[in-house]
Amino acid sequence: MRNVIIIGSGPAGLTAAIYAARANLKPIVIEGLNTDHQPGGQLMITTEVENYPGFPHGITGPKLMEQFRAQAERFGTEFLTEDVVKAELKGDVKRVWVESKGDVAIEGKTAIISTGAVAKYTNAKGEKELQNYGVSACATCDGSLFREEHVMVIGGGDTAMEEALYLANIVKSVTVVHRRESLRASKIMQDRAFKHPNIKFLWNKTIHEYLGVEDKRLRAVKLEDTRTGEITEVPIGGVFVAIGHTPASQIFMGQVDIHDNGYIKTVPGTAQTSVQGVFACGDVQDHVYRQAITAAGTGCMAAIEAERYISAREA
Ligand code: NDP
Question: Which residues are CB-neighbours of 228 under 8 A, at least 6 positions away?
């Protein structure tokens, strides 16, 4: 029986691991495996992180997560590089299953859910078929494949600006396509994007259809004007979708209470879910801040609460 099973290994999960390990709880982190749940979470596909305190000159996302992981490991965290395929969390014993162990569950006194969120797609016609054939949700992963192309970035938030700024230095040109005529992104990111000579903006447009399915290669998109409904066809070599994220909570449906928008419910000011001994932290339960530093903060809360829960029951 484990003390703490931590599911997910972004800033939330690894901070929970650091605190739980230092409290001598010998946590196990099931760190994820597939591309939607990559170990280290969303920071693994981020370039420069400029707002994580303690790094005045910035640090890359992967380097930051490497340091989180090393710190968790130093105090005795065990890692399992797999995805959780099933969870039963309601009883006194929390059980999760991973593929390699078949029917044998990993059992714990507590569970900390820190599975984060995954990139959203537009779901326009042709998008699924053309993923990896011209359509991507990760500029740092796929940008270099588009050096000779003009590309679009869809979205008006910080992610879209970050993707656009990254791509602007490697591809022929970047056009940001946004469904309104003002951006949601922070002022500093907007200013940088507006100033970049290789970034243009197309306002009040959404993707209606991706063209090129028959040749398995994106060649153009049909854009829809959100005010007039007019459809125009624009040739383009690549599209990067950056329209936000969906919490990775599906596997916990029916186990803990979940909001209609997919985020796990926690008692305000705590990491406590609707089930005793089960805690949630990071982007899977936070639709407001969604920052590495807030994820780390709630990860710390989850570990402290797990430790107190175990001590109270064993007192
Ligand atoms: P956001 O939710 O902030 O932005 C999503 C954007 O996509 C919005 O502009 C939205 O339009 C648009 N959008 C949503 N759905 C669709 C759709 N179906 N079709 C077309 N457009 C759509 O998500 P982000 O991933 O950008 O950011 C998430 C959080 O992470 C934020 O808190 C952000 O500040 C933070 N972040 C910070 C960074 C930094 O500080 N460097 C970097 C990246 C993220 P509309 O505006 O009309 O709603």
Answer: none
How far CA 120 is from CA of 100, 127, 137, 162, 202, in Å, comes to 29, 12, 8, 16, 20
Give 154 Cα–ligand 1 centroid separation in angstroms.
Answer: 10
Residues 6+ apart with CB under 8 A from 58: 48, 49, 50
**Is residue 83 flagged as an active site residue?**
no
Nearest to 6 by CA among 78, 101, 99: 78
**16 CA to middle of ligand 1, Å?**
26
Asked if 138 is an active-site residue, the reply is yes
Cβ–Cβ < 8 Å for 275, 190? no
pTM comes to: 0.82
Q: For the chain, which domains are there?
A: 2-119+245-314 (3.50.50.60), 128-241 (3.50.50.60)
191 is catalytic: no
List, for residues 64-114, the tens digit of each pLDDT value.
999 999 999 999 999 999 999 999 999 999 999 999 999 999 999 999 999
Question: Which of 45, 47, 179 most suits a substitution to test ligand 1, by most atoms within 8 Å of the C-beta?
Answer: 179
DSSP 263: P
Single out the catalytic residue among 36, 83, 142, 257. 142
* End-to-end CA separation in angstroms for the chain: 18
